[in-house]
Automatic annotation (TrEMBL):
GO molecular function: 3'-5' DNA helicase activity; ATP binding; DNA binding; hydrolase activity
Source organism of this protein record: Paenibacillus agilis
Chain ranges of the UvrD-like helicase ATP-binding domain: 187-606
Protein name: AAA family ATPase
Keyword match Hydrolase: yes
GO biological process: recombinational repair
Alphabetized PROSITE patterns for the sequence: UVRD_HELICASE_ATP_BIND
Binding-site residues for ATP, renumbered to this chain: 208-215
Keyword Protein biosynthesis: no
InterPro entries xrefs: DNA_helicase_UvrD/REP, HelD_bacillota, P-loop_NTPase, UvrD-like_ATP-bd, UvrD-like_helicase_C
Amino acid sequence: MDKQMESLHSTIGDQQQEIVEMKRHFWDEVSVDKEQLFETYVSIMQQAKDLANYERVQDHARRLLTKLGKHIGSPYFGRIDFREEYEVDKLPVTIGLMSVTDENGEHLVYDWRTPIASLFYDYAPGPVRYRTPMGIITGEMTLKRQYLIRSSKLEAVFDTGIQIGDDMLQDMLKRSADTKMKTIVSTIQREQNAIIRDDAHEVLIVQGAAGSGKTSAAMQRIAYLLYKYRDSMHSEQVVLFSPNDLFNDYVSNILPELGESNMTQTTFQQYVDYRLRTTRQIEDVYDQAERLMNPSSEEVGQLERASARWKASESFMAVADAFVTSLMNEGIAFESLGTPKRTVITEEMLREHFYVTLADWSLPARMDKTREWIKGYLKDWAAREVKRVYQRFLKQPNYIGSEEEMMQMSKKHVSKWVREMRRKAHTYGFIKWDALYEQFNAHLPRWCENALAAASTHDASKQTNTSAEKVAVAGLTGIAASHVDPDIMPTASLVANMGEHTLARMNEGIIPYEDASVFLYIMESIEGFNTFNHIRQVVIDEAQDYSAFQYALLSRLFPRSKFTILGDWNQAIYESNRVGRVEMVQRMFPERKSTVIRLKKSYRSTKPISEFAHAILPNGEPAEPFHRDGKPPVVHVVTEAERPQLVFERLQQLREAGCQSIAVLAKDEASSAQVYQLLSQQVEGLKRVTKHTQQFSVGCWVIPSYLAKGLEFDGVIIWDADQEHYGHERDRKLLYTVCTRALHELHLYAVGQPSPLLPVAEMK
Ligand SMILES: Nc1ncnc2c1ncn2[C@@H]1O[C@H](COP(=O)(O)OP(=O)(O)OP(=O)(O)O)[C@@H](O)[C@H]1O
């Protein structure tokens, strides 16, 4: 690698000299002589081509140099000796973060993503097989060895068995939590490797316990896919949907560290904000969480929680479908188009065109055709209007100028309004979208009845095996209708209350979070679904936080993409998504081949912390903790007055014990602000995370519980693990989520009675 870097340095240096020379003499050959015009042209083109070539080579050399520089301190981490069937000689295969070849092109180190390297992750010494583009290769692995090399120093060597050595993993897991996620390439576990290299499924769903390496596996998977399909797939064709900007920042280093460019990172909220045609403010998931945690009354809380739950479900999707189906015949509120003084196209004209002229077309086709009709109408209108304005100008004595100028002025005057109206038509501004969603809520019980009726038609058609059209009657997609569960349909009066409550929120100028995706789904069902065809791979992290509507939208948004979906339904802390299940996610991609992989082992926390956290969820998915010793979690029962001082002392103690990142987790935003105020005087460098925080640094942080999702800290202090804050059954998953953020130490503080959801722990 040293030799290669040296040679690259000199190539870059020599070429740089060449480029400077070429640029300096670029114009020397240029002749102004007309006779030599053609020769001049050829010479310039040739030079430009050479220059571009040099620059391309330079660019490549520079990138390679950076890569070599990055990996030279730790050029490999594994070795296997492999003897192919019917061969005599063993091939030693050294594995690292990048392939390195000698001057003859022979591999010195194999990239961890090469087919042969998969043996390292999948097998113990013995008979083995691996898949290559040419077919399956079988043979015997006679040695499997791991190296720990840091800063060009060999620190340890292990010969290992089935799993990638526990010693190595212990060493990795003992380290401190960083502000950025770590790569796990040298210790990828077999079941994680299956996720990383899966190529057979269009939708890969991973359900894994907290800390089981879902996010890590997904990141290495992207690096793997970018390597495998390097000729046809680029990083900008990969999109990551993550919970927030902070999380985006946390994982943003992985791909560059693995030598790839970063993918596009976004949040679903950003898409909704960009796309939803509303003048109201769209609530985000965090404001929703705050609202549901702190309702104005118990009654409102019950209603809002039920509403949020129901509005995320497939059953409710059937209700939205029923509403959209009804709009085929009537009900869309139109917005007239015109100038400030005159209406040009009235609501009535639009209604007539949409519901009579285009009655036989689908809704998206009607939208498109109405838009075109408006544009045509405006063209005729503009011609008439220009004449009218021109006549008016002619009659006005204070306008002076030639007839030509007057005509120009008239055209300019009219085209300003035409442009404005065309823009409105283009963005479907001829529909009163907010009014439409209000109408949906005003008659919610009616759409529920329609949905139930459609569902029974659907069931009947299924039983009698009648035509596909009948199934489609059940809803636009047919997916939702088949999963209408009459048992979870709220009663008619509750439904009416929910509708009214949403209307009241809309009157206050807000679209509640649980409604935003429903509204968008209705809007896109009418307009036609928006699509991004060039995207090849979509990764959805914290998948349990997405509703049926969000999946339905995402699957249509990326029609040509494969999906990697990672979630832990044990961490479904948002009320609006508790109905979500892995099976529901599969149903949302009916035409794509999908599979579910379960990760059962959790790596993040020490064994005592993992066991403590899992005992909070006795009915959750089972998880086996990786065996790493540590101190058991402690529940501290304290008085309110002494808590700040005790937590301060705990922070000091954790810092002295070597914890570099420590989080004090308070349940909601208000208490997190209060804790920050109480502690910031004493704790030097204390920082606070809010939903607007975009970046993370090592140190002590105060964080509202729900914002700690996906992150990890050396030490975690839970400020309010008491009956008052975590007293309800509905708080169980949140409590589990916050406890599983800790790598090495977990301390819970309770004023008065500790939370009844906690397992019996050491109390102080
Ligand atoms: N094979 C591995 N080798 C080394 N460390 C690993 C491995 N798998 C997971 N880890 C570590 O375990 C921790 C948890 O991983 P990660 O955040 O990917 O899990 P997760 O399943 O996404 O967790 P959560 O759902 O709780 O957010 C990280 O510190 C990660 O580096």
